[in-house]
């Protein structure tokens, strides 16, 4: 499937995205280079070819069928931004040995270069490996306090030599004192890989609270709002809801799932929750408009308010705000980027003719 018969963004837009390494196009298309015989992701860091030597495809199978081989740098055959084997092995070791401090000497003994590890975690987790470890230990301490353990006990179990040091780190991480932790709600997060790039999933005991692409500019304000408005204590970790969304998201992108069953918990204003509930009823492969949602809510003049609430949806894909389009058939805004929105609608075979720049 080449550019002429595939459902792809305009040629000029793909050239721009490739030259600028635009991550919002991750998984939307792949670039094949005629002079080298390889194909890459849009975000590949290799030296860029001349536009006249580029050829674009919708998927890796089309690239391979055309005789191209995968780039060894960006590895387009892997899930987008998936953790390399050496990182995955380290994460398994951390799970198996949660009390290990993991000094640079220990990392080197495992064949892991500390600086390389630091760079990977900063790029993909937004923090260094050691900062991630501290956050993980503090999350375990928070859980211990919630379970009735003493602050002194969890402080020393977490590896802190002084209670004051533990209190300072705890408050800096969770924006609450350890004494107030028993009344807070832990919000655990993990990183998920998808064909459209890495996502972050956050869940508490009642269900999934957030699912967003990691490169979204709105992500940090959303997390800060969850901490300040709803009292969440955010820490890396795992629970049943995070395990479910990881599995169900993989099934969705493989075309094997149309309905998500993971439990959701969506704190917000009454009107926002009404809008989000309506979003959740939009069937797979169908679209609607802000005006139609306002009509169903009995507020026909509230299209703009519906649009704002739609934009504040924190759970991408599962609460399908990508199925809401403009009254003129245009894509309209999408926090994850309009290329991703077009990809998701293509994936679902949505019967809609879009008139915007990314029409398909």
Specify the CATH class of the domain at 79-183.
Answer: Mainly Alpha
As residue ranges, the low-confidence spans are 1-6, 353-360
Overall number of strands: 10
Strand content: 5-15%
The helix/strand order is HEEEHEHHHHHHEEEHEHHEHHEH
What is the CATH superfamily of the domain at 79-183?
A: Homeodomain-like
Percent of residues in helices: 40-55%
Q: What structural class do helix, strand and pairing data support?
A: alpha/beta
Protein name: Methylated-DNA--protein-cysteine methyltransferase
Keywords: Activator, Cytoplasm, DNA damage, DNA repair, Metal-binding, Methyltransferase, Transcription, Transcription regulation, Transferase, Zinc
GO molecular function, one term: sequence-specific DNA binding
Catalytic activity: a 4-O-methyl-thymidine in DNA + L-cysteinyl-[protein] = a thymidine in DNA + S-methyl-L-cysteinyl-[protein]; a 6-O-methyl-2'-deoxyguanosine in DNA + L-cysteinyl-[protein] = S-methyl-L-cysteinyl-[protein] + a 2'-deoxyguanosine in DNA
Q: What order do the helices and strands come in, and which of them pair?
A:
Blueprint: H1 11-20, E1 30-33, E2 38-40, E3 54-57, H2 60-65, E4 69-70, H3 85-96, H4 104-109, H5 114-125, H6 129-146, H7 151-157, H8 163-174, E5 185-192, E6 199-204, E7 207-213, H9 219-230, E8 232-236, H10 240-253, H11 270-279, E9 288-289, H12 290-296, H13 303-311, E10 324-325, H14 338-347
Parallel strand pairs: 2-4, 5-8, 9-10
Antiparallel strand pairs: 1-2, 1-3, 5-6, 6-7
Helix pairs in contact: 6-7, 12-13
Subcellular location: Cytoplasm
Catalytic activity: a 4-O-methyl-thymidine in DNA + L-cysteinyl-[protein] = a thymidine in DNA + S-methyl-L-cysteinyl-[protein]; a 6-O-methyl-2'-deoxyguanosine in DNA + L-cysteinyl-[protein] = S-methyl-L-cysteinyl-[protein] + a 2'-deoxyguanosine in DNA
Protein name: Methylated-DNA--protein-cysteine methyltransferase
